[in-house]
# Entry
Amino acid sequence: MTGGCFISVLTLLLVFSVARVSFLISLAIAAIPLLVTLVYVYKFRHGKPAGYDIDCLDYWMNGSAFGPRPRCRSLHPLRSDHV
# Structure
């Protein structure tokens, strides 16, 4: 959560000082990293078992990991399907 706060303050300073955007718009833009961090912490870390976030990411990318994958199974090399 500290990283989200740091990125939010850095974004606020850069957008307000360097880009010369109004303070309210800069504050709204800077709130985005903080909100993303808060959603991550409360959705995937708070009250969940260790490794829950990594398991969710692995499941979303690779699908179910506990069982055979029929789409990846190869045929037996001695089996003849052309008969």
User: Anything to note?
Assistant: Residues 43 and 53 are 9 Å apart (CA to CA). The chain has a mean pLDDT of 83. The two ends are 63 Å apart (CA to CA).
